[in-house]
Structure formats: structure tokens, C-alpha cells
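Let us work through a complete example step by step.
Step 1: write down the sequence.
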Amino acid sequence: MDTNVLGGALGFIRFLMKLKAMKTPNNDSDTLTGKRGWHAKDGIAPRLGKGSATVDPLRRTKDISAIKGVLSHRPRDFALFVFGIHAGLRGGDLLSVRWSDILTPDGKARDKIKILESKTKKCRVLTIQDNARESLTRWRDSTEHDLSGYVFPNSTGGRLTIQRLHQLVNEWASLGGVKGHFGSHTLRKTYGYHMRRAGVGIETLMKVFGHSSQSITLRYIGIEEDEIAEANLKISL
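Step 2: predict the structure and record it as C-alpha cells.
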């Protein structure tokens, strides 16, 4: 066969293979290199960065209590859950917290901590709520730690991954008999949902989450549909 013809044929085959690869969904679990997220409900995952839209907050306090109940004998996971729903941090920032952020040099829990958000590069000051402080103190007392270590480490002392947090949240919900679609964003969304229910203004939550509009924040914390449903029940025409 003429070499020019052969070269052209091979080039055309390579073009077809590239075209097929572009059209084929990639469900790679590697969030750094994969084109689609590991947090999908089904086989066709949303594009990376859209995973937050696929998970729910924990709207009912009895569901939160159920999860706390099944984690009562797992101090690390209990602290991760309770601190997570009170801090409202992104998953990566939550998992990057070190004991030096939480504790003073003499080992006492701080009233307020400063977290440099990885996405915005802004410093956020968090007031540690009593339930969160108690859970962290219990976890601290039950494990060996040093101030430079992660508060929520994996089995080798390294940083937990977002994928593992996603798995844990789903595991906790399943153990607690809580129905819904959950993931790493559930902790942050739960914080926002209950802050809004407690009367915190949407403008404040916009600043906390770094959103550009109220509608984005309401949709993110899953409260928009709830408020519409409640408003519908109040009208009688």
C-alpha cells in the first residue's frame, strides 16, 4: 500500500478515536483529572464543579440526631460531623483544619478560629459553638495528637480526601436511616439551611458562601422550594 495512503488512513482512524473519546462520558473518580464528578446520582455524572447541586442538606433535626446517635462510639467521625454542620466550611477547608487551628499552645480549645479559605484566599473567623467544641474536645481526649497534625486524619495520619468525606456522609446517613442524596457538600448546606431557618439574613449567608446572588444561595442550601411550598399553604383565594 502507498505510504501516503496508509498515513492518511491512520490519521483518519486517530481522528475518529479522538471524536469518540470526546463523546463518551468519563466517570473517572479522580476529581483532578476526570471530566465528570464522582458525586453523581447516576452513571452520567454532572460536570466537575456542579456536584453541590446534586446533594441535599439535612433539613430535619431528628435526622441530625439520628446520625449523631450512630456515631456516638466513633469520636473522630462524630466530631467531623458536628463540627462540619456548625462551621459551614467547604470540604477541602474542613479537612485541612489542624489542631493548631483549634487548640491554644497549652491545649485549650479556642473560642474563635481563623481559616484561610483555599478557594477565595480570604480569612474567615469562626466562633466555635458549644456542641462543636464538646465533640472536638472528646475527639482530642481519645486520640494522640500534635498541634501540627490534621484534626480529622486518615488511618496513616494524612489528610482525608473529599472522596472519602463523600463516602462517610453517605455511610452515616445510611446507618442513621436517613433518606436522601448526600455527599461532602451536605455538611456545608446543612449549616446554611439551619442558619437561614434560625433567621440569619440571606445577605449574610451570601457573604459566607461567596455567592453572587440571593437566588444562588437559596438554591444552594435547598431552602427555596421549602419557602415556596410554605407560602403556597398560607394563601387561600
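Step 3: interpret the result. The radius of gyration is 22 Å.
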